[in-house]
Amino acid sequence: MAFYPTSVDSPLAWLAPFAANTQEAFETGTKATYPTDSVALSSGTWVLNDGVLGNTAADHKNGNQAVRLQQNGKLTMSFFLPAGAGTVTVQHAVYGTDASSSWELYAQPQACNCTKWTKVGATVLTTSATLQAAAFTVNIPGPVKFEIRKVSGGAAQLNLDDFTVTEYGTTQPSIDNDHLALGNPSGAVADVSSPNNYLLPKPQFTIGYNRDQGKPNWVSWHLDAADTGSAGRQDDFRNDTALPAGWYQVQSTSYSGSGFDRGHNCPSADRTATREDNSATFLMTNMMPQAPNNNQQAWASLENYTRTFLPNNEVYVICGSYGVGGTGSNGGVTNTIDQGRVTVPAYCWKVIVVLPVGNNDVSRINASTRVIAINTPNQQGISTDWSTFRTSVDAIEAATGYDILSNLPVAVQDVLEAQVDNGPTQ
Question: What does 27-90 look like in DSSP terms, one character per residue?
C-alpha cells in the first residue's frame, strides 16, 4: 500500500449525510473551467483540479453531465462519509474520441488522524468511449473520504460519472475459487489497445499478458484439492491461439538453445484433475524464460511445498516476472531470446495466500492469514533454498508497480503486505 500527503482533514462536524448505496451523479453544480476550484454537489462539496463538469455531446455521461479530467486531474471529496465504505463503483469512459488514460482511487480514513491517502485497488485503464463500471472493495469502518487521480494520458481527457458508495458492513457477494478473487494486479484489460497489459482469462488461471515481451506480466490462480488428480503431465508445449489476431504467438521451440527453461507460471502439477486442465499449463502464454537451476530447484521446491497445504487448505497464488536480463545455462546475461521477441526477466516473483477451506474467501482473509512472498534473481547460480528469497508483498509491489492483493480490505492489506513470512518451509 502506498501513502501520499494531501490537505488537512476536516473536523468531525463537517461530516456529510451520505446514506447507504448513495450515488453522486454530478448532475448539480457548475464548473466550466479547469483551474482548481470547489463545487457544491448533491452529496457535499468536491474539489476539481484540472477538471470540469462536462455537458457537451462529446462527454460520455448518464444524465446531463459528468466529471471531465485532463492532464493529472483530481476529483476530491471535501467531506467524510460517516458510515464508512464497503465498496466504491465508478463509471468511466474516454472523452469524445480521445486516447486512453489511467486513473486511481484513493481513500483517507478519518481514524488515521493524518493527511495521507491510501491507494485502493489496481490502477484502471480507460479505453472505451462507452461508460464502463470499475468496482473497488474498500471495507473501511468509520468516516472516510475519497479522491480519484488521473495518472496517465496527458491531454487525453477522461469522463467519470455515478460515483457510488455502499456503507461499511453491507453484505458483499461471495467470491470463491475465482482466479482474480484477490484482485487484478496491474489492472489488465481484455482490449487490444492495451497489448502490454492484456487480460487473458482461462478456466485454469488468468494471465496479465505482455505482447511485446512475449510472456506474462503475471498469472493468478486458485488451488484446492479439486484441482489435483490422476491426470499425467501432458508436456504439450504450444503457441496460444487465443491471443488477438495479428499478435506474435510464442512457439514451443522459441526457447530452444537459449539456455533458459520454459518456466511455468501456473505449474503443471497444480492442474492434474483432468488432461485438459494439465494441458492448459503448457500454453506458451503461461511461460517465462527461467534459469534452469532457478526453475528446477528453488522454484520447484516452493511449488511442491505449496501443494502440501492441501486438502485442509485452499491457496491463492499470484506469480510473475519483471526486469530485463537473466543468466541461463549458456553463461552471461541474456536480455532477449527468439530473435528479440521474448524478454528474459531479471527477477521471478510469487505471492501465496493460504486459508482454510471455506466460503466467501476474501472475507475470511485477515491480518493473521499466512502470506508467503518470494523474489528470486533469474540466475543459474542462485541458492536452492527458496526460503532465502522471502520478502514482503510491499517490496514486490515497489519493484513491479502492481497492487497485488487489491481486493482485500485496506487495513488487512496494510498488515499482510508489510510482513515477511517466517513460517515453516517443508
Answer: -S----S-S-EEEEETTEEEEEEEEEEE-STTS--SSS-EEEEEEEEEEEESS-BTT-EEEEEE
Alpha carbon 333 to its chain's center: 30
Q: Of the given ranges (21-25, 69-73, 174-178), which has the lowest mean pLDDT?
A: 174-178
**Amino acid identity of 289?**
P
Examine the pLDDT at 8 and tell me if it is beyond 80: no
Q: What residues contact 19, with CB distance under 8 A and at least 6 apart?
A: 83, 167
Contact residues for 186 (Cβ-Cβ < 8 A; gap 6+): 122, 123, 197, 208, 217, 218, 401, 402
Cβ atoms of residues 315 and 350 within 8 Å: no
Please name the residue that has the C-alpha cell 530447484.
297
How many other C-beta atoms can be found within 10 angstroms of the C-beta atom of residue 368?
Answer: 8
Choice between 177 and 222, residue whose per-residue pLDDT is larger: 222
Higher local confidence (pLDDT), 153 or 1? 153
Q: Which three cell numbers stand for residue 363?
A: 472475507
pLDDT digits (tens, 9 = 90+) for 378-421: 999 999 999 999 999 999 999 999 999 988 888 899 999 999 99
Query: Do residues 186 and 122 make contact, with C-beta atoms less than 8 angstroms apart?
Result: yes
- Mean pLDDT to the nearest integer, 34-52: 96
Q: Is the pTM of this model over 0.70?
A: no
- Quick check: helix, strand or coil at residue 298? helix
| Nine cell digits for residue 228 | 489435483
**Per-residue cell: 180:** 482474480
Q: Which three cell numbers stand for residue 364?
A: 475470511
Pick from 271, 362, 276: which is nearest to 310 by CA? Answer: 271
Handedness of CA 377, 380, 383, 385 (dihedral sign): positive
- The per-residue pLDDT for 339 is 97
Assess whether 60 carries a catalytic annotation: no
Rounded CA separation 252/261 (Å): 11
Q: Where are the beta strands (DSSP E) in 144-244?
A: 144-150, 158-166, 198-201, 206-210, 215-223
326: part of which helix (H) or strand (E)?
Answer: strand 326-327
Catalytic residue among 60, 179, 222, 264: 264
Identify the top-confidence range among 24-28, 79-83, 190-194, 316-320. Answer: 316-320
Q: Are 261 and 330 in contact (CB under 8 A)?
A: no
Residues 175 and 191: their CA atoms lie apart, in Å, by: 24
Tell me, what's the pLDDT at 17?
Answer: 39
How far, CA to CA in Å, does 298 sit from each of 231, 239, 303, 419, 423?
25, 27, 9, 21, 17
**Strand ranges (DSSP E) for 332-404?**
333-334, 336-337, 342-343, 347-356, 370-377
Bond prior to 377 in cis (omega within 30° of 0): no
